Each structure stands twice: as structure tokens, then as C-alpha cells.
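User: For documentation purposes, I need each entry recorded in a consistent format: the amino acid sequence on its own, followed directly by the corresponding C-alpha cells. There are two entries in this batch. Please keep commentary to a minimum and don't merge the entries.

Assistant: Recorded as requested. Entry 1:
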Amino acid sequence: MRNLLFTILFLLTPAAQGADVAGVKVEESTKVGSADLLLNGAGLRKRAFFQVYAIGLYLPKKTPNAAEAIGQDGLKRVSIHMLRDVGAAQFTDALADGIRENHGEAEAKALAPRVQALAAIMAEVKEARKGMTITLDWTGSATQLGIDAKAAGKPIEGADFYRALLRIWLGDKPVQDDLKKALLGGAQ
């Protein structure tokens, strides 16, 4: 009887699906270091009528609240799957613009050297190519950029920098309103 109950519950429990964003399979979970992270939400970054990238936000605990997602303790990941070629300078300029939009002048100025460090790493890559996966991992002490599952460049120190990156998509002035909603678990 007990086995039958477990079998019924298993069959009624939805399988981990992840998400499909513009033909990109965004996994339901991922691992950063030794931590298992859950897909909080996924969406599509559009610019005019172009699809730029599919993005997934992974957290230790799901939340529909932007401030909680930004401030949540533990390891985190932003996974960006490029849907078109974008030059390294254009990619990092867009990130820098998103940071400036969501921070005061003094905060943005304090973050500028680390934004430049990220830009230097991307400049070595030269281009965010269609099909490339770029990850921004919070390791507990630093932001580690990854390109196609390989660490790129030196880690960039400071929780404030990672929170600034998250505000690009989740801040008061997100890069795209419906993308913010999607990353917080809502439909895009």
C-alpha cells in the first residue's frame, strides 16, 4: 500500500521541466561550486525586433521578489545564451548602462573599476557569439565570468558588484520590464 501511494504521488508530481526560451533549453537547476541552485525564472532579452539572448536566473531558493533575489545569501548564477553575435564592447557597454540606470552617480563611480575589469575580460573574448553561453556566477566572495562552461578571467571581488549586475535585470529600472517579471518566475 505504501509503495502504491509513493508511485501515485510520483506520477502526479510534475517533472522538472526548466524552460524553453526562443528555442533554448534553460535547465531547471544548475550547480555552482558545491551548491545546487534552482531556476528562479527565464526570459528573452529583445532589442527592437531582435532576439538578443535567453537568460536564466538561478538562486538557492526561489522568490518572486526582486529585492530578495538580489540580496539572497548563497551562491547564484545568471546564465546568458546568446541568440545573435554582439561585439564585446557592445555587450559590456549594455551591462554598464544597466548598472548606471539602477545606481546613483557615486555608486556607479565606485563600481566603475570592476565594470572595466569585466569589460577587459570580455575584450579578450572579442565577441559574444551566437550560441555562446555566458555565465555570471556569485561564488560567495567574487563574480566569476564563464564562457561555455569555462572560467574566463580573474574573479571580480565584492558582493556589491554582483548585486549591481543583478539590478540590470531586476532593479527599479530594469533593462526590460517583462524580462524582470520572467526572471522572477512570471510569464514574459
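Entry 2:
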Amino acid sequence: MKNYKELIINHYKKNWGDNFRECHWKDGPIHQLNKEFCVLEYPESKKRKMWTYATCCMSSLDDNPKVEIHLFSPTKEENHVELLTVIAHYHQTGNPLNLNHTINFGRPWFEKSNCSYGLISLPYLDGPELEIMETKNISASFLWLIPVTKNEVEYKKKHGIEKLEELFENKKFNYLDKYRKSVV
């Protein structure tokens, strides 16, 4: 059987191709992360007019459920490698993350951005082909990390994820807009 990292990379390749760079953040307590952990950086392409940053081995082979997350960006940003590394550290050493969880980034997504939190969502742009990786013995979920505002997180806590997603859809929010206003 292929190793877990290779399975994850092959799953991303199947969905997004093989034009990516493997990135490693060097600062902080990275020794506490899964030794295979990295962030894959996919540049813009003709098909996708955005950068994509995706965790690889955020979960370990022993985790249940296994979760990987990705983040879209209008520009290339080394800070996104750091952000996903910090989130993976929290996932591995703090509380495991999963669908519909929110994360405090501890800083704005971009400088002067209103979005300083992330919502772990279904990968609506890519569908179940990306969302679910299943082999004979291994299953993992690949979820979308959407930058959101503090007000949107509070709205989700009060009204639920379905109501927040309805607002996103009704307001036609632009998930790539660094400076978007809250939909609440």
C-alpha cells in the first residue's frame, strides 16, 4: 500500500493536477506536527484564477476522522503556508477540527482584511470528487477553509450553519475578496 502522504498527494493531483509546490513552514513548534506534514501550493491556472493552499498530512494515519483543508487566495501568499501550519498544529495538539468548525486565525487573513476567522466547509467548488478520498483501508475528508468575519462566526453560533450559508448564497459573497464586508 502507498504511504498516507502519497495517497493524499495523488488525491489532490486527481482533482487539481500536478502543478504544485510542496511548502514547509520552519518556525514555531513544527516538531510537534506529523513529520510528513506540508502545505501544497497550487498557482493560478487558466481553469482556476486563484491560488490554492492545501494541507497534506494535517491528520495522521491513526486519526479518525482524517481531515485535510484547503484555502483559496487571490494572490500568492507565504502567510497562508504559515496559517495552515498553525491550524494543523492546533488540529494535532489541541482540538481536532472537522466540518462546520470555526477557527480564530489570530490575525486578519490579509492585512486590513475583515476576515480573521475561518469556517471549515464542504468543498462546494470541487464537489464530492475532492471531498472524499476512499481506498480499501483509508478514508479522509478534504474540506474548504473559508475566511469569515467575527460577526459571521457569531451569526453561525446563534442561527446555525445553514442560515449562514444561506446568507452567503443570497448576498453572493466573494470568497476571494480580501476586503469584503461581513454578510451579517
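Summary note for entry 2:
The chain has a mean pLDDT of 95.
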